[in-house]
Amino acid sequence: MRVLLWHVHGSWTTAFVQGKHTYHVPLTPDRDQWGRGRAATYPWPDSVVEVPVDKLSTVDFDVVVLQRPEEFGLVRQWTGRRPGRDIPAVYVEHNTPKGGVPDTRHPMADREDLTLVHVTPFNELFWDNGSTRTAVIEHGIPDPGQQYTGELERIGVAINEPVRRWRVTGTDLLPRFLDVAPVDVYGIGAAALAELMPVTGYDDPPQPFLHSELARHRLYLHPMRWTSLGLSLLEAMSLGMPVLGLATTDAHSAVPADAGLLSTSVDELVEAARWLMVDPAAAHRLGARARTVAQARYGLDRFLSDWDRLLIEVSRHA
């Protein structure tokens, strides 16, 4: 199939484009948010093709995968085709609802021309989807391999835009862990955080470097208060890392008790971090279980099979 989609979320798209289709990503002259083209920091296959926006109308797409409301208008403007009418369409919701939770209506509510895909059961439950047909396709990740060593008595964290998103991503909680060990933060805008608190920040590192560096840390901390199930958490588990995090949104279903600790008590998480710093054997034991669980539930084969079934279904019923 010829799939049109935007490069919005790097980790999710990296998994999605590992399938057997041809993936066309719009390209604007300045590679802005509406046309980033191929990723620079993620390994993408040759089946991902950049298409300048003024050439999109020449490609006969089989389906469009939308991720932002504005993309409806861009498809019509750049291809002359109406999503859900002239071309089969699905809309992927990556995020938890904002505003008046749990009464927040989804911008795609009450539509008959598309399928609304949520990445977790939690998101499907908390969004008001109206009468729109919904599906849940949980995350899948390429296996980064068993890389955990835990040799550094440091805490690894991956957060994009930790300053702007602050309480949403639990950035404000990081200083409470500094009494246990140094904290290293990786992600877009992480270096700016180091100006506000005594952590080390690494701005938007390439994914292979991120994985190899995180795996050297004794543990992975996932302090997210109100985000969807973070791919960084699943990647850390697949690396073989023990994980600590807030028991919020859908994280509780991803991390069993023998793979780490989830709690709404930050004090409990701090004490667990202290324990893992002095007990590397326990850290390795939890990390091994975390990797097994993550690969069983969030493996790439299951993810791509789920997506293949849905894409074929929506194309046949268009």
Largest sheet, spatial ordering of strands: 3-2-1-4-5-6-7
**How confident is the prediction overall: mean pLDDT?**
96
CATH structural class of the largest domain: Alpha Beta
Question: Which oligomerization state do the chains in this entry correspond to?
Answer: single chain
CATH topology of the largest domain, which one? Rossmann fold
Which word captures the global form? globular
Q: What is the alpha-carbon Rg in Å?
A: 20 Å
The description of the largest β-sheet is: 7 strands, parallel
- Integer tally of domains: 2
Model regions low in confidence, pLDDT < 50 over at least 5 residues: none
Q: What percent of residues are in strands?
A: 15-25%
Order of helices and strands: EHEEEHEEHEEHEHEHEHEHEHHH
CATH superfamily of the largest domain: Glycogen Phosphorylase B
Tally the helices: what do you get?
Answer: 11
Overall number of strands: 13
CATH level-two architecture of the largest domain? 3-Layer(aba) Sandwich
Distance between the termini: 14 Å
Residue share in helices?
25-40%
Strand-helix topology:
Layout lengths: L1 E4 L4 H7 L5 E6 L20 E5 L10 E4 L3 H10 L9 E5 L21 E4 L2 H6 L6 E4 L15 E7 L3 H4 L17 E5 L2 H4 L6 E4 L3 H8 L2 E6 L8 H9 L3 E4 L4 H4 L5 E4 L2 H13 L1 H18 L2 H17 L2
Parallel strand pairs: 1-2, 1-4, 2-3, 4-5, 5-6, 6-7, 8-9, 8-11, 9-10, 11-12, 12-13
